[in-house]
Amino acid sequence: MQQSRLRHILYNKELRNKVLAVFFMVFLYRIMAHVPIPIADSATLSNFLTNLLSTNRLFGLVDLFSGGAVANFSIALMGLGPYINASIIMQLLTQVVPKISQLKKEGEEGRRKINQYTRYLTLPLAIGQSIGTVFFIRQLAIQVGQTDIVGTPSLAEWALIITVMTAGSMLLMWMGELISEKGIGNGISILIAASIIAQLPGIFGQAVSIVTADMTELIQVAFFALASLVITYFIVKLNEAKRIVKVSYAKRMQSSGYGGVESELPIRILTAGVIPIIFAVAFLSVPSFIGQLFAEAQNPALAAFATNITIWFDPSNIIYSTTYFGLVVAFTYFYTGIVFNPVDIAENLQKQGGFIPGIRPGKQTEQYLRKIVNRITLFGSISLGIIAVLPFIGEQITGSQALTFGGTGLLIVVSVSIESLRQLDSQIINASYQ
Fold first, then answer.
1. Is 354 helix (H, G, I), strand (E, B) or coil?
2. pLDDT, tens digit, for every residue of 164-187?
3. What span, in angstroms and rounded, lies between the C-alpha atoms of 174 and 102?
4. What is the distance between the alpha carbons of residues 407 and 235, in angstroms, rounded to a whole number?
5. Rounded to the nearest 5 degrees, what angle is found at the Cα of 400, between the Cα atoms of 396 and 405?
6. Helices (H) and strands (E) in the chain, counts
7. CB half-sphere exposure, 41, CA atoms < 13 A
8. Is the dihedral of CA 57, 58, 59, 65 positive or negative?
9. Region of residue 110 (left: phi > 0; alpha: psi -120 to 50; beta: else)
C-alpha cells in the first residue's frame, strides 16, 4: 500500500504538487520558529526562557505545541493560538446567535462567511495576545530572575514587537488555510503536528543523555518507550473505532432492478478528533496568565488571589490535571454536537427516503441517534481525557518530569497522520477514476 501511494504521488502531477505544497509550508513554518522577535537584550532573554522551560511545565507544554518557538522567542511565538481562540468563539456564537446559526445551514457559502468572520476576529485577538504575552514574560522575568528582559523600549519599538508577533500569527493562519485548500489534510492540525514532531530529536537526545549520565535510568527510559508504543496502539484503535448504524432506502433504482437499498451510517467514537485537547490547552493558559499578571498588584486581596490561581493551575497541581480532564471531556461533547447533529441527519435521512430498521423516521430517529452518540462519546471523551493527563500521571508515579512527551503529543501526531493518509488515499482514488 505504501509503494502504491508513493507511485501515485510520483506519477500524478496534481497529487505531487499538493504533497510538495504541504512540505513547503511546514518548512516555512520551521524557519519562522527560529526567526527571533527584535528585543534589545536577546542573550538575557534566551537564558531566562531556557531556565523557565526547564522548570515550568505549562510553558514546556506551550513550547511543545509551538515547536520551540517559545524557547527561541520567535515571530511564531503565539503560533495558532489566536486563530484557535477565534474558532472557539465563533463556534460558541453559532450555538447562541440565530443569524450565525442560520449561516451554518446555508452550506458552503455559509461556511465561507463564518470562516471569514473567524479571520476578522483573529486579528484583534492576535494583537491583544501579543501585548499580553510580552507583558506576561516581562513580569515573570522580573518576579523570577529580577531582570527586566524588555527594558524601556520606545513607542516605535513597542509597535514593531507587537506588529511582528501579530503578523507571525496571521501568517501561520494563512499558511494553515492554504494547506487545507491546496494540499492534503487539515492545515491547522498539520502545522501543530509538525511542531510536535520537530521536538522529537530533542526528546531522543534527552533520553540518550539521561542513560549516558546514569545507566540505572535505562529501565525508566525503556519503560517510557514501551508505554509510548502501547499508547500509540491504543490511540490508533480509538481513532479508527466506530459504531455502524444500518440504514435502508426504499424503492431506489439498482443494477438488478427497482427495490430497496441497504446502507451504513458510521459514527466515530472520536468524532471531535484532537480538537478538544487543543481547545483545553488554550483555555488552561488563561488562569496562569491572569495569575502572573496580577501577582504584584497593589491590592493585597487581588495579589493573594492571583498567587493562588498560579499555584492551583500549576501543571504539577491536581487541580490543573482535574480541570484539564474535565475540559477535554466537555469539549469532546461540545464539538461532537457541532460536527454530528442528530436533528440534521434525521431530517436528511427522511428527505432521502431513508430509515433505520425498527425506528420510525423523524423524531424517533433523532432520539435514537442522539442516544448512540451520547453513549459512545462518553467512552471516547473519557479515553481522550485519560490520554491528555497521562504525562501528569506518569510524573506522579515515576517522580520524574523527563521524557513527558505524553499522550497529548502522540494523540495529535497519530490522529493527524491517519486523517492525512485517509484524505491522501481518497484523492488517489479520485485521480485513478479520472
1. strand
2. 889 988 998 898 888 888 777 788
3. 26
4. 9
5. 95
6. 18, 3
7. 14
8. positive
9. alpha
pTM: 0.74
406/325 Cα distance (integer angstroms): 14
List residues bridging with 264 in a β-sheet.
Answer: 246
What is the tens place of the pLDDT at every residue in 98-153? Answer: 887 777 777 778 888 888 888 899 999 889 888 877 777 777 766 666 666 666 66
Place of cell 515550568: 56
Q: What is the pLDDT of residue 402?
A: 47
Give whole-number Cα distances, 366 to 102, 260, 341, 352, 355, in Å.
20, 22, 9, 15, 11
Measured CA to CA in angstroms, residue 52 lies from 45, 48, 135, 303, 392 at distances of: 10, 6, 16, 22, 18
Residue ranges of domains in the chain, CATH in brackets? 1-198 (1.10.3370.10), 228-424 (1.10.3370.10)
Compute how many other C-beta atoms are within 10 angstroms of the C-beta atom of residue 285. 21
Strand 242-254, strand 257-268: pairing: antiparallel
Backbone CA torsion sign across 130, 135, 141, 144: negative
Q: Compute the distance between CA of residue 351 and CA of residue 332 in angstroms, rounded to an integer.
A: 29
Contact (Cβ atoms closer than 8 angstroms) between residue 431 and residue 8: yes
Rounded CA gap, 350 and 352, in Å? 5
Q: Is 143 helix (H, G, I), strand (E, B) or coil?
A: helix
Q: What is the distance, to the nearest Å, from the Cα of residue 34 to the centroid of all Cα atoms in its chain?
A: 21
CA angle 92, 97, 102 (to 5 degrees): 105
Q: Which three cell numbers stand for residue 186?
A: 487539515
Alpha carbon distance 90, 112 (integer Å): 13
* Interacting residues of 155 by C-beta distance below 8 A, sequence separation 6+: none
Cell digits for 27?
Answer: 518548512
Q: Which of 87, 78, 85 is nearest to 115 (CA)?
A: 87
Residue 192 pairs with which residues in a beta bridge? none
The set of cell numbers assigned to 298 is: 497593589
Cell numbers linked to 29: 513554518
